[in-house]
Amino acid sequence: MPTSNVASPNVSFHHLNLGTLSKSIAISGLVLFVFYTVWSNHVNGYVFLDKEPTPEFLPWPLTSPPYRVSSKFTNLRVYPKLVSPPQVRMFRAILDMYRQGDQANKGLRWFMVCDDDTLVFVDNLVEVLNKFDHTKYHYIGGNSECVKSNADFSFDMAFGGAGYALSWPLVEALSSKLEGCIERYPHLFVSDHMVQSCLADLGVAVAHQKGIHQIDLHGDISGFLSTHPQAPLVTLHHFDTIDPIFPSMDRPEAIQHLMKAAEVDESRLAQQTICYHRESNWSVSVSWGYSAYIYENIIPRSTLIKPLETFQPWIINTSYPAFMFNTRRPNDDACESPHVFFFQSFDEDWKKNNASAVVVGDQQVVTTYTRKWPANLRPCELAGNHSASLVDEIRVVSRMRARKMAGVMECCDVDHKIGTSSVGVTIRSCLKDEVIA
């Protein structure tokens, strides 16, 4: 069946079947919290376990998706040759999902597969899926952030931790050919690679999406999240291994805090907007709902869209460049190092209480970002010694719309009185041919 990118109208979360892959011994408080966060959207689907949950997790929480034990496959002729039976179980979850979905809901259009430590932003996922015709073959996902991970498996593969989506007709076709595919690839030891190989044999290539994140990173990923492109944030993986994404919070608290912003405007979440305060020679970068940076120098957008390398690669290997994207190395240069602020709160009623509101025509929301630690930076002499050390709060005004249009660039204006502790930023539509530099 040929593929097409003609959008299917009126796709909603009711048309989605979400399958989460887990193991009985992997269930933890964090995993259950991720389940609760994602599945509170009332999507269809199941968590697939290798065996029944341990007694401590029974009765199964009502705030988690219903679980199913993966179907047995030890009777397969190729079973003795399988390099990794647990990964084959995960690969076969597609078949298990198809069987469950076929019985439960004839109106399903999409299947989404992800890991148990993956945060899924369902509204943004639906927006991405709306770009594709669900009646055709589609395989949608993201690759790894690290060159080595992609080189070890395939640059044309959707990583399952990040999550991948399959259209119903493709799952239907694959379900009838899945056992034969396992026969061809018993030597593969990762389920994602099995999926990619089998779909390649069907003539289907992955459609990479920028907002689907494997997060093959270690440590502090704030530099990565603070430069998210103008694309919907769809998934974040590896919450059990990275540092909490907000300082002074544990992982569940950090997830809950991010979701507060997502509840206000998921379509804009984490997307980077850049503008300047010329009087102070400052550059301001806002990752909406996550962080805000002030640089004491005018730095062009072409530089600021490169993530600050606050993180480490999943596996350090000098045979390859570390990352699939360019980065900036953190340093102590006052003209290059940012003052860092993190999302603190939002105020939807700010417009009603502030006569000087500058955004008109739509309801607006104000998000506030606060400094979590002293900058300890000398003023940037090159740019005129306009220190930002006094600033302890950045207030960002944005329009509340039904949805921010995916891929549409936004600009902003900075309002600041030199010597005061607060900075105002107003996000707006860019002017025609506006240069951000």
From TrEMBL:
Pfam families: DUF604. InterPro entries: DUF604. This is Uncharacterized protein.
